Amino acid sequence: MDQRYWHLRSSQLFERLNSEQITRLERTSRSKSFAKGELVYLPSDEADCVILTVSGRIKLYTITSDGKQAVLAFIDPGEVFGELPVVTGGQRDEYAEAMERTTLVIVPGSEIRHLMGNHPDFMFGITKLIGLRRQRFERRLKSLLFRSNRERLAHLLVELAQQYGLRNGHSEIELSLKLSHQELANVIGSTRESVTLLLGDLQVENLIAIRRRRIVIRDLPALAAEVDQPVPTIANGTRTEGTASLTNRPKSGTTK
Description:
Layout: H1 3-10, H2 19-28, E1 30-34, E2 39-41, E3 49-55, E4 58-63, E5 69-75, E6 80-81, H3 84-88, E7 95-98, E8 102-108, H4 109-118, H5 120-146, H6 149-164, E9 165-167, E10 173-175, H7 181-188, H8 192-204, E11 208-211, E12 214-217, H9 220-226, E13 235-236
Parallel strand pairs: 9-13
Antiparallel strand pairs: 1-8, 2-7, 3-6, 3-8, 4-5, 4-7, 9-10, 10-12, 11-12
């Protein structure tokens, strides 16, 4: 049995499907690998597939009117992306770029629409996914519009702690995702210089530390309080390390 079967079976979106349905998806889908910095798709590409991340990490972003990146989301192994225009019809409206060597399973849009039309549980699952992702985008937009640079950075660090943080045994939380100062700036809609200064301030205040180019959060409750966020629960243990060092002009090699 092809490995795609097990990747699809383990995805939360497809977990409600039976073996026959997963087998059909496995037979009609294909796997493809992308190098770091390579584009998976571009805005205005026709949306004819939903994509499952098997390994690596994907960054979704747009380009602002002044030519800067605005990061929308990071997509980790086991997560799908590119589903909205497949469901609603239309074209892609963001860039999808591999942040490191990444393997994807590409599922035809026709199969997704077939499942939506014939399996209410799947319809519920993909509708829930779209709703949660839209909420995430809306929260980020509100943060960009109504918060200061420091508040946006604090909010992002709390969000990253929840998704990528692990306690290191000393009440500190280490982020497994490495992001450069420029990449942090792209997420919060700021400049690299401003982010560098803000990170320095947070270190002086003993809220964070930076060790081996990795952010360590030393006082998560204080960061969360700055932006009126609940303190997330952080697990103990280890995660697969993720690195991110992006270029302004990624290589092409897209799949629609």
